[in-house]
């Protein structure tokens, strides 16, 4: 059995991946809150932004953490199409969950459906990303820990959507984002602790790209997207601010008449 190191760079990758998960969760929650306060095209656009932020944050968290993953006795490569598919899949499934909450008239039913869908999407992203790993050996999983990681993903997603429906203040959203980031990170490392590798030493070249050739540049690009989107969302007026502006405009028009 090969020795697995989940933090080859020390605390750098776990902490950075947690930060990315928190940013994605904060953006997703804020955008969902904004969406629920609007209608029509504006609601749709906010929900798409929420889904892309959540999906990007979760994917970036996973692969930033994977930068610190090492297996003694074997190099590691990543299958590029499968890795990209894991990103697209994460965004699509999270989008389904967010839209279920954003457009359903039965909030409780939408919460359960959205939480289950989004949680399974997070879990599938993780294990699809792991399926993209190429090394000299065979990867196995502890089914109990796999099941626990999926449960954590579903509970975390449901809690995040509940927060989006019920929490409005910036402070509460921040706290919820920190909790969501911790839950996503816990899901990732629970899934990683389920991994075992039987190494078969070989001098053959592995197919795929190294983490630094592919994962690192893509993670940096997506991380930049999260930071840019954060600035846009931070500068966007809240529902209360829009209402106050509309009221002021109506008052001006009333005086003018």
Summarize the topology:
Layout: E1 4-5, H1 12-36, H2 40-66, E2 70-71, E3 76-78, H3 80-103, H4 107-131, E4 133-135, E5 137-141, H5 143-166, H6 170-193, E6 195-199, H7 211-235, H8 239-256
Antiparallel strand pairs: 1-2, 3-4, 5-6
Helix pairs in contact: 1-2, 1-5, 1-6, 1-7, 2-3, 2-4, 2-7, 3-4, 4-5, 5-6
Helix/sheet category: mainly alpha
The count of domains is: 1
Biggest sheet descriptor: 2 strands, antiparallel
Strand/helix succession: EHHEEHHEEHHEHH
Biggest β-sheet: strands ordered side by side in the sheet: 1-2
Low-confidence stretches: 240-252
Strand content: 5-15%
Mean model confidence by pLDDT:
81
State the shape. Answer: elongated
Number of strands: 6
What is the radius of gyration computed over CA atoms, rounded to a whole number of angstroms?
A: 20 Å
Please, how many helices? 8
What does this structure look like?
InterPro entries: MHYT_dom (IPR005330). The longest helix has 27 residues. Helix content is 75%, strand content 8%. The chain has one domain. The protein has 8 helices and 6 strands. With 257 residues, the protein is mainly α. Helix 1 runs antiparallel to helix 2, helix 1 packs parallel to helix 7 and helix 4 packs across helix 5.
């Amino acid at each position: 059995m090969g020795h697995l190191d989940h933090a080859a760079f020390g605390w750098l990758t776990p902490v950075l991946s947690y930060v990315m998960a928190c940013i994605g969760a904060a953006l997703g929650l804020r955008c969902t809150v904004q969406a629920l306060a609007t209608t029509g095209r504006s609601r749709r656009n906010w929900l798409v932004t929420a889904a892309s932020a959540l999906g990007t944050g979760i994917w970036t968290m996973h692969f930033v953490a994977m930068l610190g993953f090492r297996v003694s006795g074997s190099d590691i490569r990543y299958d590029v199409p499968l890795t990209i598919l894991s990103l697209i899949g994460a965004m699509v499934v999270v989008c389904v969950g967010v839209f279920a909450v954003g457009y359903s008239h039965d909030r409780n039913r939408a919460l359960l459906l959205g939480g289950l869908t989004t949680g399974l999407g997070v879990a599938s992203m993780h294990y699809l990303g792991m399926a993209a790993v190429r090394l000299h050996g065979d990867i196995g999983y502890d089914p109990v820990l796999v099941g626990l990681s999926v449960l954590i993903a579903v509970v975390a997603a449901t809690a995040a959507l509940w927060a989006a429906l019920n929490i409005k203040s910036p402070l509460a959203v921040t706290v919820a984002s920190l909790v969501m980031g911790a839950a996503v990170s816990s899901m990732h490392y629970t899934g990683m602790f389920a991994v075992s590798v039987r190494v078969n030493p070989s001098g053959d070249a592995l197919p795929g790209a190294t983490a630094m050739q592919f994962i690192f540049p893509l993670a940096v690009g997506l991380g930049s997207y999260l930071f840019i989107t954060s600035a846009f969302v931070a500068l966007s007026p809240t529902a209360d601010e829009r209402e106050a502006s509309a009221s002021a405009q109506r008052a001006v028009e009333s005086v003018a008449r």
